[in-house]
Prior knowledge:
Number of strands: 20
Number of helices: 13
Bound molecules: zinc ion
Helix content: 25-40%
Distance between the termini: 39 Å
Number of domains: 2
Strand content: 25-35%
Structural class: alpha+beta
Largest sheet: 9 strands, antiparallel
Amino acid sequence: MEEKLREYARLLVEVGINIQKGQNLILASPVECAPFARMCAQAAYAAGCREVIMNWRDDVLSREKFLHAADDVFDTVPEWNRRFYNDYAQEGAAYLAISASDPENLKGVDQDRIVRSQRSGSEALKPFYRLQMANGFPWCIASIPIPSWAEKVFPGCPDAVERLWEAIFQSVRITGDGKAVERWQEHLRLLEERRDKLNALRFASLRYRNSLGTDLTIRLPEGHLWATGGGETPKGQKFIANMPTEEIFTAPLRDGVDGVVVSSMPLCQDGNIIDKFSFVVKKGRIEEARAEVGQEALEAAISLDEGARYFGEVALVPYDSPISNQKILYYNTLFDENASCHLAFGEAYNECVEGGQNMDKEELKALGLNDSIAHVDFMVGTADLSIVGTTHDGREVPVFDHGNFVL
Ligand code: ZN
Ligand code: ZN
């Protein structure tokens, strides 16, 4: 176990954020994960990191705050907090977040407080989020188990934490043999091959259909680019934004999405579970949203701003792929999005359009990319999903059949 943990910490630091000599590292971690966070810090210093700056998180304190803090707390962000994120982002510090949370940590909390806190946070940390969406600094989000989350994934199992560890190690290709880095390089190469095929086709639109009732047409911007989880900063520092990652993604045309889309997995959003939901979409805008579970949380998520009602990401993940084949519902988007084709409502990534990394929001908007303070992935892939691409000269090309790539 010790060896696997060290290998995982090294993988996150050396491949995930690819820390450079003299670079600062912001490390965010739940307090329960302190021993692992220390290993990441040790790996970073061993690789020449200048300073590791800790940002501790705690589900219990976060819930207490949402329940009991003074009401105006959710509309303001203290100056030191703005400076912390924005200044480090602007200097190009690396950002590694260990994401582990009780999926229902904020159940019963006033949704209005959650929405206001997101709005004020996004506004105050705009420079940070802008740079993150444009790969302006190396960032990586990864996970390790905490008991509350493991209990949700493996209810009633006395060894839930161990089982979640096993599943996570498998999904990030850690076996303890010290060869995880090589396996990741090979994995990224395969994703890049597929990305290149899609880019060569230059689709005008994609049509999604399955037996859940999804029938959605998504037009793609001219000059759209498919990307993989492997990003690169303007200075050429390569990193992997999410570990694990199995997706190939691009941006839809903001006003070019029409039809009905039905979720295929529960979505854990801001400490609430939203399940069995669907959207009716007209000219890109979500006109109707219905959830059997979590209607209020769903309404809140798409009401963050006007852009939250439009889509910002189209991602392809085969039904037959490593995380999907585990048949585990993680209640954590980092894993669940890599088990299923997904879409995101909210902001699009700069790298999804030619030259996008150097464009500002107005330029991206002019090309048809969505702008929002939200970016929420939700899963739509099923065993019977078909996706047919249409090229600009009207040729139809099957992309997915029975849930898998056929390109
Ligand atoms: Zn995605
Ligand atoms: Zn996403």
